[in-house]
Design goal:
The complex is a heterodimer.
Chain A (H helix, E strand, L loop, with lengths): L2 H43 L7 H25 L4 H11 L5 H10 L5 H15 L14 H20 L1 H33 L5 H20 L3 H38 L6 H8 L3 H9 L8 H18 L4 H15 L3 H54 L62 H4 L25 H5 L7 H18 L4 H14 L3
Helix pairs in contact in A: 1-2, 1-5, 1-6, 3-4, 4-5, 7-8, 7-14, 8-9, 8-14, 9-10, 9-12, 9-14, 10-11, 11-14, 12-13, 13-14, 14-17, 14-18, 17-18
Chain B lengths: L2 H24 L4 H12 L3 E5 L6 H12 L3 E5 L6 H5 E8 L2 E8 L6 E5 L6 H13 L1 E4 L2 E4 L5 E6 L12 H5 L1 E6 L5 H11 L13 H13 L4 H13 L9 H6 E3 L3 H17 L7 H12 L4 E2 L1 H5 L4 H11 L5
Helix pairs in contact in B: 1-2, 1-3, 2-11, 8-11, 9-11, 11-12, 12-14
The chains are: A mainly alpha, B alpha/beta.
Chain lengths: 531, 329
């Protein structure tokens, strides 16, 4: 290594130290600037209630770190000419321009070699005993401190101003998650209806239309209220659709009950089947009726019964009533062949009615599913409102209880078309059961429900208001096996419900729930009322 | 390391140090003035000393002549002094019955010329020095005579007695390398002066060097390197002495009529080089520039009426310029 290289190596040593020092200062500035920028960004985002607490801290930390890394990179890679570094070096160590002159002389072409070497030797001698780190002047970082104070001010300000918006954002995020979950459930429901083999394409179209409309709205919904409103509209449409078949079914059932009273009537079997909701069995029973085996008196009686049925069904099922009327008239005219033919047509009309009732049933189940969705969302909204009213901060893992209650399709009456599920109406095959009606003899002994909110327990326990396997029963809770094994406290459904009812009342009275949704909430919790 | 060159430089620097010590034997308490005078001498520049009488100005230059074995002459400038009294004249002489004019050199034909109270002579006489100071030649009767090297003019002027004086014209002032202010000595210095000058034995300076040594040291000094940024800095300094410069300090704009000429910059750099060499360095440093800026510029700043009326000291302006001019552009 010649003298010049030796001088340059000393200069580089100094340069490394100055870079390190600059990197530290710049890093601090970058860190603080990053935090300031993120705090300003947070202040801009906070009014929109779109920033979560976790996101706020991630934003602060990430911006600070990015600023730190960028600043260090800039400080380290900032280009500096050798002569400039030399000037700084000789200024710090009072070298009287020896080094920069030596470097300049080395770069000049026409220079006295003897004097060049003399200058180089002088510079080397002067720098011989220098320890570069001793020359680093660590000044009090006034600018950095000022920036840090600004950053703290902004962070404190944004944190202070952000308390309410953070909660609101948390609620919004929960609502969005809830809406998303309900969208998935709705999509599943739509898929199931589309794949259903029992429903005709027309029926599918009629049911799917409101569902898809509500799905579109929910996908673009910016608030829980908007999503609930969409579901409510769809539910209303479906219920209207369902009410037609429901009336027909009830009419048939009533007519069947009347028929079943007459034990001697050849229509007794059909009447019993109708009264129990077995429409298909009733149709088959009617089809099997052989008029030739009946005497005139029985035929006359049969004609009267057909006429009565026609009158009874005239409102709810005019097509079937017409067939019964034709049968009655044919019998009255003693035209057995025409009567037999009319009876066959009536049987076919019952089959058509089955289709309508099934469609109605599907629409009703879909409506029920939508009602459940609304209920869950409104419960979530109510919990959020209660949490906000009580001033407690809701963390992101504290979801409202309705959110974790299994899949949408597994809820009672959720419209899931699984064979294992007991339908509310199984027109023509199984009798209609309304097991959730108090006093109908279908009450079960209360299942154990673990209610952590009530007991102040851990939120990790799942509270479910219903399962697919027990859809017809009153809503019960799922208890994790470990808790059961540990003999945790359980409370009956009625007591759990009372706490929910209380919260509902509070939410309704406090005005946390919009006026347009208060009725929906009331209806939902009324439907859960075990009394 | 080139030891030969270094040893040579070292030998000359030792001589300079010895000259300084010899002068200090006679001249007490004027170390800074001695230093500046030596810098001007080794830069081949002339010095204008401003100070009241009796401060040792004449003694200083006489001692310098003794120490360097240089031919010394003293000219007392008076209102009736004629250029021929300085330059010399053609006189009629009888050489073995043959009469002819031949040149009789004046006191200017010396190595060290003391122009005492230069402002007392009329401008015509003052101007007689111009050619000699700048070109080291004298032209008389269409004949040009070259002065011996080194040629060093040391002029003095009294700042107090202004009656009947002729202020030096700008062109004359600009030819002085330095203008050195000689202040009254301190009490301790005065005490030493009294002790040395009132005793039985008078202090005298011994001969240390020769006239040729001065020329060699001047050549060595010119080898001293100046880094580019200092070269630019000096240029910036000179620019900032002009009131029309946009970056110059307010004091310049307010009180200066004309700034320093390029000779001012040359004087700073040459003076800084000699100063660096005397400090044992082979390069000019920022401190060297600062050390010679005041004597090199103070007589080159021409104050305007406002500056003269308020008796602004040019040194204040120079200090302000030095403080405000950035080292890096």
């Amino acid at each position: 290594m010649n003298d010049f290289d030796l001088l340059i190596s000393r200069l580089r040593q100094w340069q490394r130290w100055t870079r390190l020092q600059r990197a530290i200062y710049f890093g601090a500035r970058g860190l603080v600037l990053g935090m300031i920028i993120s705090a300003i960004a947070a202040l801009a985002l906070i009014p929109n209630s779109t920033l979560l607490v976790a996101e706020y801290f991630i934003l602060l930390t990430a911006s600070g770190l990015i600023g730190f890394v960028i600043a260090i990179g800039i400080a380290w890679l900032w280009p500096q000419s050798r002569v400039k570094i030399a000037r700084e070096y000789e200024q710090i160590f009072d070298l009287k321009e020896r080094v920069s002159t030596a470097i300049e002389l080395n770069q000049r072409e026409q220079v006295d070699q003897a004097w060049q070497q003399l200058q180089l030797s002088d510079a080397l001698e002067a720098t011989q005993s220098i320890q570069p780190k001793d020359g680093l002047k660590w000044h009090f970082p006034k600018m950095e401190l000022s920036l840090l104070l600004v950053a703290f001010g902004l962070i404190f300000g944004s944190w202070f101003l952000g308390q309410q918006p953070f909660q609101q954002a948390e609620t919004n995020a929960q609502n969005q998650r809830l809406v998303k979950a309900e969208v998935e459930n709705l999509e599943e429901l739509i898929s199931e209806i589309e794949n259903s083999e029992q429903l005709s394409s027309e029926t599918k179209g009629a049911i799917l239309s409101p569902l898809k409309e509500s799905l579109d709205v929910m996908n673009q919904a910016e608030s829980l209220e908007e999503a609930v409103s969409a579901l409510s509209d769809a539910q209303q449409t479906l219920e209207e659709l369902s009410s037609i078949g429901s009336e027909e079914f009830e009419g048939l059932q009533a007519a069947g009950e009347e028929l079943a009273k007459n034990q001697d009537s050849p229509l007794n079997l059909m009447g019993e089947a109708l009264s129990q909701g077995y429409l298909q069995a009733a149709g088959e029973s009617l089809e099997e009726l052989d008029l030739s085996t009946l005497n005139p008196q029985e035929l006359a009686s049969l004609a009267e019964q057909f006429m009565e049925m026609a009158e009874q069904l005239e409102g709810s099922s005019p097509e079937l009533a017409e067939k019964f009327k034709q049968s009655a008239e044919a019998l009255q005219n003693q035209d057995l062949q025409a009567a037999q033919e009319a009876i066959a047509n009536a049987s076919k009309a019952i089959s058509d009615a089955i289709q309508r009732v099934e469609a109605s049933d599907a629409a009703q189940r879909s409506a029920d599913a939508l009602a459940d969705s609304q209920g869950r969302m409104m419960t979530a909204a109510m919990f959020s409102a209660s949490a906000q009213n009580s001033g407690s901060q809701t963390s992101s893992n504290e979801n409202p209880p309705s959110e974790q209650k299994g899949s949408f399709g597994s809820q009672p009456g959720s419209g899931e078309f699984e064979e294992s599920r007991t339908p509310r109406k199984e027109a023509g095959l199984t009798p209609l059961t309304q097991n959730n009606t108090p006093g109908n003899g279908s009450e079960k002994q209360y299942d154990s429900v673990y209610a952590p909110q009530r007991l102040g327990g851990m939120p990790e326990t799942e509270l479910s208001l219903g399962t697919g396997e027990d859809s017809a029963s009153n809503a019960v809770g799922d208890v994790s096996s470990s808790l059961v094994e540990n003999a945790q406290s359980t409370v009956p459904y009625t007591e759990v419900y009372s706490s929910y009812e209380k919260s509902t009342q509070q939410a309704l009275e406090s005005g946390a729930i919009p006026l347009s949704f208060q009725q929906i909430v009331r209806e939902y919790f009324s439907s859960l009322d075990p009394r | 390391m080139d030891t030969k060159v270094q040893q040579r430089i070292k030998a000359y620097l030792e001589k300079v140090s010895a000259i300084k010590q010899e002068i200090q034997k006679v001249i007490v308490g004027q170390d800074e003035i001695i230093r500046l005078v030596l810098i001007a001498l080794f830069s081949e520049g002339h010095v204008l000393l401003e100070g009241v009488p009796g401060l040792g100005k004449t003694k200083l230059i006489r001692t310098l002549g003794q120490a360097l074995d240089l031919h010394f002459s003293r000219i007392q400038f008076t209102p009736d002094l004629m250029p021929a009294d300085i330059m010399g004249t053609e006189i009629l002489s009888d050489m073995g019955g043959e009469r002819s004019f031949h040149f009789q050199p004046g006191p200017i034909f010396a190595n060290l010329v003391l122009a005492d109270e230069i402002n007392r002579a009329p401008p015509k006489t003052q101007s007689a020095l111009l050619e000699a100071m700048e070109e080291h030649t004298v032209t008389i009767a269409k004949k040009t005579y070259t002065l011996d090297s080194p040629f060093f003019v040391m002029a003095t002027q009294n700042p107090l007695e202004m009656d009947g004086t002729y202020p030096l014209p700008e062109a004359q002032l600009d030819r002085f390398f330095f203008k050195i202010k000689v202040d009254s000595p301190s009490e301790a210095t005065l005490s030493q002066i009294f002790a040395r000058t009132t005793g039985y034995e008078a202090q005298t300076a011994s001969q240390i060097a020769h006239a040729n040594d001065v020329t060699v040291i001047d050549k060595i000094a010119k080898h001293v390197a100046i880094p580019s940024h200092l070269n630019e800095y000096v240029a910036r300094l000179i620019t900032h002495t002009h009131p029309k410069c946009t970056d110059c300090p307010q004091i310049v704009k307010q009180y200066v009529r004309y700034g320093a000429s390029p000779r001012g910059g040359q004087a700073i750099i040459l003076g800084a080089k000699v100063n660096a060499l005397l400090e044992g360095r082979y390069n000019v440093a920022f401190d060297d520039v600062k050390a010679v800026a005041h004597p090199a510029l103070r007589h080159r700043l021409l104050l305007n009426f406002e500056g003269l009326a308020e008796e602004i000291d040019p040194d204040e302006i120079i200090t302000e310029i030095l403080d405000s001019t950035p080292l890096e552009s």
